[in-house]
User: Fold these one by one.
Assistant:
Number 1:
Amino acid sequence: MTRAASGRAFPWDAVGLIVLIAAAAVAPDVLRALFGRASVSYLSIVTNALSLAILALSWDMLARTGQLSLAHAAFYGAGAYTTALMLRHLELPMWLGIPAGGVVAVLFALLLGSMTLRLRAIYFAIATLAFAEVLKSIAHHAPTAFAGGNAGMNVAPLFRPAFVAGEMERWEVAFLRNEAYFYVYAGLLALTVLVSMALQRSRLRHAFTAIRTNEDVAGVMGVRPARMKLLAFMLSAAGVGMLGAVEAHRIGSVLPDQSFAVATTVLALVTPIFGGLYTTLGPIVGALGLSSVQELLRRVFDDGYLIGYGVVLVMTILFMPRGVVGSIGYAWRKRGSGPSRAAPSAAPGSDAAGAPTRAASDAPADDPRAEAGGDA
Amino acid sequence: MSVLLRTSGLAKRFGGLAAVDDVSFEVQRGEIFAIIGPNGAGKTTLLNLISGLLVPTAGSVELEGRDLAGLGTAARCHRGLGRAFQVVQPFPEMTVRENVLVGAMFGKAGIGRAEAERRADEALAHVGLDRRADDDAEELTLMEEKRLEIARALATRPTVLLLDEVMAGLRPVEAREAVALVKRLRDEGLTIAFIEHVMPVVRDLADRVLVMNYGRVLTTGSYAEVTRDPRVVEAYLGADPEEATP
């Protein structure tokens, strides 16, 4: 019963964000104090997890409007290629490539979003997948002098910490570099979380949910589906575009098959499903959870760990269809109000007379037979 | 009285089938206007054309003298068209209040959160759902879902409310309550156009009745006039319309 007052309820999300930011601020130093030299690789594992969280949370923001995108590799690759092309052809500060990557991804999102407005479900998914493949193909076939062709382009690192002999050990150079990247990713994630939380607290949350549940009904109630879907597309692409740009610097190169990898798209969708869809927390929990599982399995099994990873994924989706966060939240809500919610079917009105009407086809269906069926 | 809603030569063809064919009628401000006809006569398609879910093959819809051509569902809602569906379709992931809040927040432009919540609660009280406001929408009974459907439309503050078979599936007691609700809404200044199969309900509510058959207008008039019309009687398979109801 507390959900109705969610606007005035205790701001758990804000508290959670502050705790996360505090944890991120001290994480590199804690890792270093605990693990010394090994903290270099731990930092990059954690950074990978943050990267996955940014990708997953951004994907989820679009999914909240019912648009299950298979195009997120396109936004990621667009961001990566934007910063690489700027470095290669323009004399601009390197850091500008990151916001520019976000902007270019947003423009692509606007283009793709307006083309797919009327497509639903599987048709939407196929169109978005094709879009990503087209961009990949363009990256392959663009003139080598311009965009590097199959060989891609080198991208300078954002950070080059200097080795100071006598004052630090060799590994500390790598640590400083990884630490700097870690903070960039943490900052980008914080930004994405803020956008997601703002969405969840505003009236847009209701608009997104309404469109996802029934676009026709949402429209009749005054929600503008086209506008909302495009907005979600742009917000979703912005973070992923910037992520792609930062990753290009961290990896040191862009390549068509790596920057527009189908794996990016798959992770973008699997992670929120694992963690819990349509929330801010779910995709983050999903990213941290999946990264941990993957790392643990890699350490235990060495080769073939991906089989175990797949098993964990399938089991979670089979037995926790709402995702980790969704399932816990569901159990929590069921806890207090058992009997009153247990037997809704026993309520008056949902008797035999009601059943045929409810089973009838959707009223606003684009089909004259819908009426005949509904009238029965 | 002035004309609030007017359709002129409205038509919708699906391939070779004319679901709605040359339908022209006027709804006066403040009246309760019934649309009746046998199964498949094109009544729901007609409402879909008016509310913008379907694009007409020909003809026009005017609200308060302004042509609605080219406007989507949301824009029409903002102009004052409210719509309740025949198959009730609440947003199951939301509470009852949140369902209505969507209509209150988005039904008219520039509504603040506080004002939207006030309008939502008002609409809920209007249909007698205020006590269930915080329950999940999927827990409602059929009658309650129908009330929710109307509350959502009311929360958009329409000038004309389109109701699609609100009485279907209701028991007599519930139907009487629904009739009383519709009358109350009209007394408060709302104009209502509704599709209905239950003839006693049409008799009790309608100021004027439009009879459709095979997508076309058969006749328009008072309840007494149309039920005396031999073409109407024939359309209902020769039966007395009062007995042709399910």
Number 2:
Amino acid sequence: MTTTELVGGATGGTSTPRRRLSDNKLLRFIIVRFLLIFPTILILVTMVFVLMRSIGDPITAALGGRLSPAQLAERIEAAGYNRPILVQYFEYIGQVFTGNFGQTISDNRPVLEVLSRYGGATLELAFYSLIVAFIVGIPLGMLAAYLRDKWPDAILRVFAILCYATPVFFAGLLLKLVFAVNLGVLPVAGRASVRTELQLTNVDNPTGIYLIDAFQLGSPAVFADVLSHAVLPGIALGLLTAGVFLRLVRTNVIGTLSMDYVDAARSRGVGEFRLVRKHAYKPALIPIITVIGLQMAVLLGGAVLTETTFEWEGLGFQLAQYLQARDFVAVQGIVALLAVIVAVTNFIVDIIAALIDPRVRY
Amino acid sequence: MAAANSRFRALVRRLPIIHHLRQSVGLQRGMLIAGLVITGVFLLVAIFAPLLAPYGYSTLRDENGTFGAQQPPGGQHLLGTTVGGYDVLSRVIWGAQTAALVIIVAVILSIFIGVMLGLISGYVGGWLDRVLVVVADAVYAFPSLLLAIVAAIAISGGQSSFLGGIFAAALSITVVFVPQYFRVIRAETVRIKSEAYVESAKVVGSSTTRILFRHVLRNATRTLPLIFTLNSSEAILTLAGLGFLGFGIEPTAAAEWGYDLNKSISDVTSGIWWTSVFPGLAIVLVVVGITLVGESLNDLADPRLRTRRRADSTPSPTAETSAVPGGSINGLDTVNGLDLRP
């Protein structure tokens, strides 16, 4: 009997009134959890606002050396930065909740446009790295649990620590050195070669996600080019999360291996490897779902560094550019936007976790 | 005399790391010792950097003239020179000092602030507690590097001198870490608050301050050494990330590994490896060392993960927060973490 059958059997046996009760609780959980998003966003946006404005108005910060004091004063006046800070704060909060994240100073674009233009690239990178993390982390974690306290386990655990200890940009630089410069098998930087970029402009409804655009184009060469550019950044960022998954799966599989139902299976003569592969690993995956929410934050932070390393033109790359240009309105906008994305992702992940595992519900 | 000596030895044995070292066995002991050795070497290098480094961190020339940019390793410059003409070995060694200073300042600050807030919030309870918990949870879920960037802008406007840079980096990291200490100490305080000895202290008429610091704080600190080690390694990574994005300390003010790595991006493309590999390895080594210590402490404390325990044992703490970016070393704690919310 597999784990699913066991779990399915347990829930199937619940009587109807009890199920209705748990459904109500679930609904309540979802509502409470949804309402919690707003204070979270409000707190983060407020923090970003306070921190960013504690050094003065953004126009002086960005253009201070380049304009005369009179011109500066004129632009500050026009942008409304000479009004009381509280007025500006409430105006800003109002704008954020209506989806207006402000205009960049250096190139005068709405922050939302920056997002729609470059968000796809970051999403694509995050997707690749999650795939790398799953492929590397979960099987290796199961293996480490199976060979617990033997030398392969020690090696795998050191590998997990190395994954976490290596800054993504250093991992990226090393991968570049080996595979792009010395071996010359993969491209050094960028999301696609110039020719591919040109061809991708022919796509009717470009999504900004090159993988999908290349698929629409239907050209294998373009597809291969896009993928080959994604390999190194994906691995650099993915290994970070892979280390976390590896540890998590190892710990939890070891935990479930001592459960009664695993003991029961063992006493029926199920082999130790089959126990890990069939019985112990599925419950061990639940914490992974919870962690993915937190990992989104890590991936977004890591994306800033990875994109800078590989000149991957996504949100993180843009953020780094705006930081260099001291365009703090753009920085504030992008950071606030990322805060919203993180808050919403965490909400979705919590709901999924609650659907799967009733113990999580409040 | 003999009694005093044995009491001293008993005290030493109860010290966090020494206690764990005595308790460990086999592979876990090996990992703990390896971590302690690496961390020890790092601290020694940091302290004796002025003696160990062949040149200063911002030295561009000696009596034979300038060093020259991008010189390969060997000869006068064991690890070569950077694109800016600095000696790589010297900058790696001086970088240890910067990293150590930033960790110490950041961790002390965050322990102080986090512990205070956690104690008060957990003990007083009520709306203050609820607000602080929501704030801490919000900050905890935010990408820490982005928060550190914003804090760095606010503190230094982006660039700074040696001490200013170290404090700016440390404070930026503190903003990220305070919620972690807060959560742990608050959870402990809430638990301890209902213990009988706190109630009896109240009955005897002890002041709130005395109860907080004498009865609650002393019993709530058991997880601190663990979080301390885990956070130190994250502090190094955050510092390097800040430096990599150009919020580090100017090369003339101090050596910083992340800054050097940023300057080496273009070197890598032309096959110059020594400017990036050595500072990068320094980061990896130090983080691995500190993480090995932290993870060993965590495993020793967790009965499900501990292989075997030596006779000398008193229960020790498990991580309730973690330095693994966003996640927890111990998976089930992430689920438990939800219990901390209102």
